[in-house]
Write a structure and sequence with these properties.
Layout lengths: L45 H5 L14 H4 L39 H11 L12 E10 L18 E10 L14 E9 L2 E8 L12 H8 L15 H8 L5 H7 L14 E2 L4 E4 L5 E10 L8 H10 L3 H12 L4 E9 L1 H6 L19 E10 L4 H6 L12 E3 L3 H17 L84 H8 L3 H16 L4 H14 L1 H10 L42 E5 L6 H13 L3 E6 L3 E3 L7 E3 L1 E2 L10 E4 L3 H8 L2 H12 L3 E5 L4 H5 L15 E4 L3 H12 L12
Parallel strand pairs: 11-12, 11-16, 12-15, 16-17, 17-18
Antiparallel strand pairs: 1-2, 1-9, 2-3, 3-4, 5-7, 6-7, 6-10, 7-8, 8-9, 13-14
The structure holds CIS-heme D hydroxychlorin gamma-spirolactone.
CIS-heme D hydroxychlorin gamma-spirolactone (HDD) binds next to strand 2, strand 3, strand 4 and helix 11.
């Protein structure tokens, strides 16, 4: 590194190694200006790149950016090279002996290119293979030092950069987004005291109580091994065979059969840490905690028919939605909440807080808001960031600790282990997306793909040759495990078994079902009906109904009837007869309608159906009003391109009835104008469009003469009872007030009162 002079070309990605940032080998004039390291046209701003971790930063700032600059590559204005940096003269032809002669083995350019290509894929995640991620930050509302010394909660306004990956569980990497499935909700906090991964789901409970059952669960739900079907679906024999023999999964089944399993958007679903964790403060006092993420845009889900259709028209529906929200500046946001409780309180609960199939009703322990998370930057490169990100439940920081949940214990092992295969060795922590912003110093060395060039001859501790460094931090600064003791009555010696309260498999399944609104209950029943109707072995279906009877006789009866069963099978024997009396028997907080959010119609996708001959002025007025509300309206016409409006208003349709069908939109506006209505009528897609919008209970506005389209689609603007349909707005007369009514109706996202089954 000794001979770099000012102005000499060198690889700016290697500035750290050349000593420009750590000051070890300063070269006068050779410092890379920060601006030249940012890709042109990137979504990053220079201000973002200069913030330091933990500073009080304004919205949009992400201090994980600067450390990544080292590996960012910007090829604009550059020539093509080999991986050794040799410029390539011809990238079209392999090297031959004469143009009609054989290709020569010495063609190192061809061989390097093909060899790299042959190894482009890495193993996909065994679960959660399909996912999407984004960068953002967590902002703390107030210091939580009473409970925890964890870095993100140290002061009000403190910013901690995060990377979040959402995922489905069952499907393979290329599978559809809208499968009926649990969604992963994994957050990596790059705290200034090391990385903390909160690897959660969008459902607060889990199928099993002990990690020893996880491989069985996953083998059961994945495509069946003999024919690899079905993809990204639980509606098959092996899954229901397993869960019907594992009554501890009943509570989770209620959630998975509910609309929670078909979210409208990642931005409109909750997240949960699931397990009970510990918070530990500076005095080494500990309380228990459950983590909750609540979306600012409210909790919205799809309906099943919609999810099925979307999976065909746009398998990337959630990925696209996340990407577009961030690009549009409608940054997805969640509030982090904590349910904090003491060991003494936990001892008295009717359920065991170490049992991941149980939740703590908010009605029993309220959720305390502690901060917010904003996702404001899409990855630059999907593979480098979203695919290579490695979450591990073992990644905790001082102030956060584990409970004895046996499911969590298995996870602490499993995640690190899986990354070693998936990411090719023990150095996955050095991959830029996984590297902490806190410095790493230890005596771990070598291994596949090692990046760090550790200096000196000392790789052990204690040492004197390196002045004792790196030295252990001690209890004041380092991670110290909370010295939990088992109570005398719990002392049993080594044992394979479960605490008694784990055997109550049904109380909370009942609580969940009974706490749902009528439309939610109907969807749960319909989901059980759908899934169980797909089974080829009737005995599994019967066994499931016999277990469901213990959770809800109402639900079991309805599902059995819908499946054509003549009589109900006997109830499945319970693991224990007498269970502790539940503190809460009705928990309204468990309904999707309990968290409506606060942001109106932000990011809602609205189709404005228009055709040649439509009146453009009113359609444009609606478009502008919706944009002003933060919604995303699009003109959809029989074909894309300029619309020949009746009044000459210039409108460009960027979507067609064919390429963006009705179920991809949250709401519908039908443009006015006799000729336009006639043109829409003449296209068979229009009827499907309107019908799907109607059947999926969405908000529909017809301007003026467009009302005629309701008749054609056999859609009534009023309910069977004769009452007005709350989701249908007819824009006759003053358009302003009609638009207001439309926006208001759209805030509800859906109008289940209209729904019929089928
Ligand atoms: Fe897991 C991935 C969430 C139980 C073993 N899990 C994974 C991901 C999420 C979860 C969100 C994807 C992370 C990413 O985006 O890369 N898992 C959960 C939750 C669980 C749970 C909330 C229960 C409360 N998991 C669980 C158990 C085990 C695993 C009991 C094993 C004993 N999970 C894994 C894994 C994965 C994984 C095999 C696959 C890829 C990966 O870890 O990185 O190790």
């Amino acid at each position: 590194t000794g001979d770099l002079a000012a102005g000499m070309p060198f690889n700016s990605n290697k500035s750290i190694e050349h000593g420009f940032q750590n000051g070890l080998n300063p070269q006068p004039g050779a410092t890379v200006p920060a601006t030249s390291r940012l890709p042109t046209g990137s979504t990053l701003s220079e201000e973002n790149g200069t913030q330091k971790t933990g500073s009080l930063a304004p919205e949009g700032v992400n201090s994980s950016i600067e450390p990544l600059d080292r590996v960012r590559v910007d090829s604009s204005g550059q020539v093509l090279t080999t991986n050794q940096g040799v410029a390539i003269a011809d990238n079209q032809n392999s090297l031959k002996y004469g143009t009609r002669g054989p290709v020569l083995l010495e063609d190192f350019i061809l061989r390097e290119k093909l060899t790299h290509f042959d190894h482009e894929r890495i193993p996909e995640r065994i679960v959660h293979a399909r996912g999407s991620g984004a960068h953002g930050y967590f902002e703390c509302y107030e210091p939580l030092s009473q409970y925890t010394k964890a870095a993100p909660f140290k002061e009000a306004g403190k910013i901690t950069p995060v990377f979040v990956r959402f995922s489905t569980v069952q499907g393979e990497r290329g599978s559809k987004d809208t499968a009926r499935d649990v969604r992963g909700f994994a957050v990596k906090f790059y705290t200034d005291e090391g990385n903390w991964d909160l690897v959660g789901n969008n459902i607060p409970v889990f199928f099993i109580q002990d990690a020893i059952k996880f491989p069985d669960l996953v083998h059961a739900v994945k495509p069946e091994p003999h024919h690899q079907m079905p993809q990204a679906a639980s509606a098959h024999d092996t899954f229901w065979d397993f869960v019907s023999l594992m009554p501890e999964s009943t509570h989770m089944l209620m959630w998975v059969m509910s609309d929670r399993a078909i979210p409208r958007s990642y931005a409109t679903m909750q997240g949960f840490g699931v397990h009970t964790f510990r918070l530990v403060n500076e005095n080494n006092e500990s309380v228990f905690v459950k983590f909750h993420w609540t979306p600012k845009d409210g909790l919205n889900s799809l309906v099943w028919d919609e999810a099925v259709k979307i999976s065909g028209a746009d398998p990337d529906y959630h990925r696209r939605d996340l990407w577009e929200r961030i690009e549009a500046g409608a940054f997805p946001e969640w509030e982090l909440g904590m349910q904090i409780f003491t060991e003494e309180e936990a001892d008295k609960f009717s359920f065991d807080i170490l049992d991941a199939t149980k939740l703590i009703p908010e009605e029993l322990v309220p959720v305390r808001p502690v901060g917010r998370m904003v996702l404001n930057r899409n990855p630059d490169n999907f593979f480098a960031e979203t695919e290579q990100v490695a979450f591990c439940t073992a990644h905790v920081v001082p102030g956060i600790d584990f409970s004895n949940d046996p499911l969590l214990a298995g996870r602490i092992h499993s995640y690190v282990d899986t990354q070693i295969t998936r990411l090719g060795g023990p150095n996955f922590h050095e991959i830029p997306i996984n590297a902490p912003v806190a410095q790493v110093h230890n005596n771990q060395r070598d291994g596949m793909h090692r990046q760090a060039i550790n200096r000196g001859r000392v790789a052990y501790e204690p040492n004197s040759l390196a002045g004792g460094c790196p030295f252990q931090a001690g209890a004041g600064q380092g991670f110290v495990t909370f010295p939990e003791r088992l109570k005398a009555k719990e002392e049993q010696g080594k044992v394979r078994g479960k605490p008694e309260k784990f055997a109550d498999h049904y109380t909370q399944a009942t609580l969940f079902y009974n706490s749902q609104t009528e439309p939610e209950k109907a969807h749960i029943a319909a989901a059980f009906r759908f899934e169980l109707s797909k089974l080829t072995v009737p005995a599994i279906r019967e066994r499931m109904i016999s277990s469901l009877r213990n959770a809800s006789e109402e639900l079991a009866t309805k599902v059995a009837r819908d499946l054509g069963m003549k009589e109900l099978p006997d109830r499945m024997p319970r693991a224990i007869d007498r269970v502790a009396k539940a503190e809460v028997t009705h928990a309204p907080s468990l309904s999707l309608f309990a968290k409506p959010g606060s942001t109106g119609i932000r990011a809602r996708k609205i189709a404005i159906l228009i055709a040649d001959g439509s009146i453009g002025a009113t359609a444009t007025q609606v478009h502008e009003a919706l944009v002003a509300e933060g919604a995303v309206p699009r003109f959809v016409a029989p074909r894309i391109g300029a619309v020949n409006t009746a009044d000459g208003t210039a409108i460009d349709a960027d979507a067609s009835l064919e390429n963006e069908p009705g179920f991809l939109f949250d709401a519908l506006v039908l443009a006015d104008g006799e000729k336009g209505v006639a043109a829409l009528k003449a296209d068979g897609h229009t009827m499907e469009f309107v019908k799907d919008q109607y059947r999926h209970c969405k908000t529909i506005m017809a301007i003026g003469e467009a009302q005629a389209l309701f008749d054609m689609a056999d859609v009534s603007p009023s309910l069977p009872s004769g009452d007005p349909d709350p989701g249908i707005v007819v824009g006759a007369g003053k358009l302003d007030s009609a638009i207001q009514a439309f926006v208001k109706a759209l805030q509800d996202h859906r109008h289940p009162i209209r729904e019929t089954d089928p």
